[in-house]
Write a structure and sequence with these properties.
The complex is a heterodimer of chains A (about 325) and B (about 675). With about 325 residues, chain A is an all-alpha fold. Helices cover about 80% and strands about 0% of the residues of chain A. In chain A, a hairpin with a 4-residue loop joins strand 1 and strand 2. In chain A, helix 9 crosses helix 11 and helix 14 runs antiparallel to helix 15. By secondary structure, chain B is an alpha/beta fold. Chain B has a domain of about 220 residues: P-loop containing nucleotide triphosphate hydrolases (Rossmann fold), CATH 3.40.50.300. In chain B, strands 6-7-8-3-9-10-12-11 form an 8-stranded mixed beta sheet, sandwiched between helices. In chain B, a hairpin with a 2-residue loop joins strand 21 and strand 22. Chain B is globular and about 75 Å long. In chain B, about 50% of the residues are buried. The chains are: A mainly alpha (about 325), B alpha/beta (about 675). At the A-B interface, helix 1, helix 10 and helix 11 of A face helix 2 and helix 3 of B.
Chain lengths: ~325, ~675
């Protein structure tokens, strides 16, 4: 187990290094020397050159990359010139809120999709199954910003039940005490995932329902409810666990949309704003963190599958 | 009402009584009637054999008794009474109290019969907790108890194991333990040993038998295998097309069967002492479609004794003699089993020595080794799996060589290596003296073209989206040495040769029956005029009545075309019927080789002898006289095979030398070779 983990972490590190190179090169190609954009159009060329020289942007790309990595190793993610703030600090301020939004949406999606998929599988090809499939596919097919706007129109503007803007508080405590403000963002972020997860869960459960051990359980006199709980659930959720592991990028992308629609100050909103400000160090750090999270998500998914499925040995 | 329901003992001792059971299934807008008016009963301590081919309704009858019909299935008539209690009137909740408690079921072992993510302890304890209201701990203790009952050593330690950690034989024991946990009155065993090798089958059947006696249970043994029935059942019900064709005491049935179907079924089974020169008895046609209701006898279209009466009205199951009922207008005269007749004939025609000629072999395999690298876990250390470990044999032109052995012995790997699907790790394969091995790419494929393969599973080995014409034409197209019209002509010739009508040309594989698909597979293999045919389990997936048709066809074609064949099978009777010479494989090694009669009558290797003894024969006297289990234990892993003789871990004769030195294949005379330090016969 320890050896397996070490190996997986080592390969993950290689992947992350690869991501960092690609992202760094891409941003470098786009922005090159950012002196002009930082100092503005009125700055003299000499000032721009001086800035670029001072910050090291006139050095060869390889050297710039290596010094960036050197910073990374020491926990330095660079500096946002636009906000005149440390990037690491900036991310830390916003990461908690994004994590809360994503986690809540993920858990909600799972809590809805798993029972839904199993229900569908047990009523395969009946009317209720088809109706749920149609409904979840409509959710899946609608772009998230559209869903969010429709939700705001209905629940905030028309019914005036829920606020149109997410909680602006920086304290997790305040956010928890006023859950109404978070309801719409979480629901819309969960919506698309519910469709995918339910689809997966349905087909995995169908697969398992056809296995002989279900028939054997019935022959032992196990009730249908108990068959679902003690036999079907665990076996049919294996594919979903892997899927959740690899759905980190989709969650992050969802955050971009949802956070900007609901004006929720998380990483996604920071990214959108930094994009508009051409604040490259922030973009670079965010993309890198996305890569790390994706790799980690995969690893955690695989570990979870191994824990749930005794047939898989991590050695 | 049918008199059969009143057969035998008085109803007071009957545990289970099924009368006029009729089952209908509604699926895809079609209504099938898989079970029609079946009556059966069973008393404590008794074993009732329910025998029939696929689609005969035997498993559906078991499912109906359990109240576990598939979706769309309903019992439309009759009664199921357990100890005086009418099961049909029970609610689903009450029926659950019966399942696993009063009636338990043992299913065919497959990897999926046990929940892969639950320990076997949990799965065995589950019915105890449900039906006995036992606590977790009590149920766990009971699980250990029944696990020791089914002969698993150190049961308490095994309870925490997961199914994938057990071998096939162990899993089947766990299945039986699960069924026994609540000491049911009736146990329904549905093909309990079909997925197991014969040596394991013998062990499991003996176990089931002993437990039934000890616990005083009544057992319904559902199987397609007449040999298993002969050895284990007290009474037999033969089913055909959802009805009981004949019901009798086992000895009575085999000694004096009356229904033509029972006779034909038994006559079609290739026997170990089958006369090779005689054609196998075969039943023409296919079982009827269960969606079509006809007034007549369901067997009429295939029966040799058919008359107008048969197609006009179905005969009822009537008890013509005490304890012997059959449903037939023209019963056969009471005659002894065709098996016994065949035996006698074979005895007379024995000892025809085939003279070994000195012609060079068509196919020569020498020192063939095939090893695989396997990883344990995802990133585990790799190990060598020794699938074939130095096998040599030759096949003379026009001869058939049979390779026999249990699953995991490497026989299929050997076949795949010979046709070039696998590259050997070492050794040579020579076709007409030419070493095929160094040849790669187009040249290799061209040189190997004379070797063609017929596969086991006729469904999986035909492309489901290609029509029959395209399937058979494919090898011709690849060979590329004929124009389209010549190819079409060849396809028609081939269809004719394998006995298929040209109307199948435009059909897709799923529109054909199993026997027809296997004929297509044979036609495809023959398309490019091969000189060597490799047939891997050619009839294992087929029902008995269809199997004999295909075996006859293969034998005819071999003779007509002068084919040299390699037949690979786990079924010694099939191999012996088709092959001139037989090689017995065990764990990658050839342990014995010789003429079929020599192998069967004078087996020199303890493994061969045990294998032959384990094969159930459809003769009650022979079966009952057999010792409990000839070969015990299980096949060791090929990753770390035993040192010296690979069979020594299961051999009753093993001595110190067997662990140290590997026995060589030595000739006992007349081409009968054995690799054993203590052969059962010398010279």
């Amino acid at each position: 187990m320890a050896r397996y983990l070490a190996r997986r972490l080592a390969t993950s590190l290689v992947v992350v290094i690869g991501i960092s190179i690609v992202v760094f090169l891409l941003l470098n190609a786009m922005s090159g020397a950012p002196g002009r954009s930082v100092l503005g159009p009125s700055a003299s060329p000499e000032a721009v050159d001086a800035f670029n020289h001072k910050e090291g942007f006139d050095r060869p790309v390889v050297v710039q990359y290596l010094s960036y990595v050197q910073g990374l190793v020491q926990g330095d993610l660079g500096r946002s010139y636009k906000l005149n703030q440390d990037v690491g600090e900036l991310l830390a301020q916003n990461a908690g809120r994004s994590a809360m939004l994503s986690l809540a949406a993920l858990l909600l999606a799972l809590a809805v999709a798993v029972p839904l998929g199993i229900y569908q599988a047990r009523r395969r090809n009946r009317r209720s199954d088809s109706a749920i499939t149609a409904a979840t596919f409509m959710l899946y097919a609608s772009p998230q910003f559209f869903l969010a706007v429709v939700a705001i129109e209905i629940f905030s503007v028309q019914l005036q039940l829920l606020p149109a803007q997410a909680s602006q508080s920086r304290s997790a405590f305040v956010i928890f005490t006023d859950p109404r403000a978070m309801l719409l963002p979480i629901l819309t972020l969960a919506a698309a995932n519910i469709a995918i997860f339910a689809r997966y869960q349905r087909s995995a459960a169908l697969d398992q329902l056809g296995q002989d051990y279900i028939k054997v359980a019935r022959a032992k006199g196990v009730s249908e409810r108990k068959i679902v709980r003690s036999h079907l659930l665990r076996n049919s959720s294996l594919p979903l666990i892997t899927l959740v592991g690899v759905s980190v990028p989709a969650l992050l992308a969802g955050n971009l949309v949802i956070e900007s629609v609901f004006n929720y100050p998380g990483l996604g909103l920071l990214f959108i704003n930094s994009l508009a400000r051409e604040d490259y160090p922030v973009l670079l750090a965010y993309t890198l963190i996305g890569g790390v999270l994706t790799v980690l998500g995969n690893l955690i998914g695989d570990l979870l599958v191994a824990i749930v499925d005794p047939r898989i040995e991590l050695s | 009402m049918s008199a059969a329901a009143d057969l035998g003992t008085v109803s007071a001792t009957r545990v289970l009584d099924v009368r006029d059971l009729t089952v209908a299934i509604e699926a895809h807008g079609r209504r099938l009637q898989p079970v029609s008016g079946v009556s059966l009963h069973i008393s404590a301590g008794e074993t009732l054999g329910l025998v029939g081919e696929s689609g005969s309704g035997k498993s559906m009858t078991g499912a109906a008794i359990m109240g576990m019909l598939p979706p769309g299935g309903t019992i439309t008539g009759g009664s199921v009474t357990l100890g005086g209690r009418d099961l049909r009137s029970l609610s689903e909740t009450d029926y659950r109290q019966v399942r696993g408690n009063d009636i338990a079921m043992v299913f065919q072992d497959s990897l999926t019969s046990l929940n892969p993510t639950r320990t076997i302890g949990y799965q065995i304890a589950e019915p105890v907790r449900i039906h006995r209201g036992a606590s977790r701990k009590e149920a766990w203790e009971r699980a250990a108890e029944v696990l020791s009952l089914v002969g698993i050593p150190r049961p308490a330690e095994r309870l925490g194991d997961y199914p994938h950690q057990l071998s096939g034989g162990m899993r089947q024991r766990v299945m039986i333990a699960m069924a026994l946990a609540c000491e049911p009155k009736v146990i329904i065993a549905d093909e309990p040993t079909t997925a197991l090798d014969v040596t394991m089958q013998a062990q499991v059947l003996t176990l089931l038998d002993g437990l039934k006696e000890r616990l005083g249970m009544a057992m319904i043994l559902i199987t397609h295998d007449m040999g298993v029935i002969a050895g284990r059942a007290d009474r037999v019900n033969v089913m055909y097309a959802g009805r009981i064709a004949e019901a009798a005491d086992t000895e009575d049935l085999f000694a004096a069967m009356r229904h033509p179907y029972t006779h034909d079924l038994l006559a079609s089974i290739p026997l170990l002492d089958q006369d090779r020169s005689a054609r196998l008895y075969s039943i023409s046609g296919l079982p009827p479609d269960l969606s079509e209701r006809s007034a007549g006898c369901p067997y009429a279209s295939r029966c040799r004794r058919v008359s107008d009466a048969c197609t006009a009205l179905a005969p009822e199951l009537i008890e013509h003699m005490p304890g012997h009922a059959f449903a037939c207008w023209h019963p056969m005269p009471p005659q002894s089993s065709p098996v016994l007749v065949a035996r006698r004939q074979a005895n007379d025609s024995r000892h025809e020595e085939t003279v070994e000629d000195a012609t060079p072999p068509r196919l020569a395999v020498s020192g063939l080794v095939k090893e695989y690298d396997v990883r344990r876990g995802w990133f585990g250390a790799s190990a060598r799996l020794s699938a074939v470990a130095g096998v040599s044999f030759e096949i003379a032109p026009g001869q058939t060589y049979g390779l026999v052995g249990e699953s995991g012995c490497g026989k299929s790997t050997l076949g795949r290596t010979i046709i070039g699907l696998e590259r050997p790790t070492a050794g040579e394969i020579r076709l007409d003296g030419l070493d095929l091995e160094p040849l790669k790419g187009g040249e290799g494929r061209r040189r190997r073209r004379p070797i063609q393969m017929m596969f086991q599973d006729p469904y999986a080995s035909l492309d489901p989206r290609l029509r029959v014409a395209a399937i058979i034409r494919e090898p011709l197209r690849l060979a590329g040495d004929a124009d389209r019209s010549a190819q079409d002509a060849r396809v028609r010739d081939l269809l004719d040769a394998v006995g298929l009508p040209t109307s199948v040309l435009e059909r897709l594989p799923h529109e054909l029956s199993g026997g027809q698909r296997q004929r297509v597979g044979l036609a495809r293999a023959l398309a490019v005029h091969p000189s060597v045919l490799v047939a891997d389990e050619p009839v294992s997936a087929l029902d008995v009545s269809v199997r004999s048709q295909v075996l006859n066809l293969m034998k005819d074609l071999q003779a007509d075309l002068g084919l040299t064949s390699l037949v690979i099978s786990h079924d010694l009777a099939v191999v012996k019927y088709l092959a001139d010479r037989i090689g017995v494989m065990y764990l990658g090694k050839l342990v014995e080789e010789g003429a079929g009669e020599d192998i069967y009558q004078a087996a020199a290797h303890p493994y061969t002898a045990g294998l032959i003894a384990a094969i159930p024969e459809p003769v009650p006297d022979v079966e009952r006289a057999k010792p409990a289990a000839a070969v015990t234990g299980e096949l060791p892993s090929a990753i770390d095979p035993p040192s010296g003789c690979r069979f020594r871990t299961r051999c009753p004769l093993a001595d110190d030398i067997c662990a140290v030195r590997e026995p060589e294949l030595i000739d006992l005379g007349a081409g009968h070779k054995v690799a054993c330090h203590f052969p059962l016969r010398v010279g």
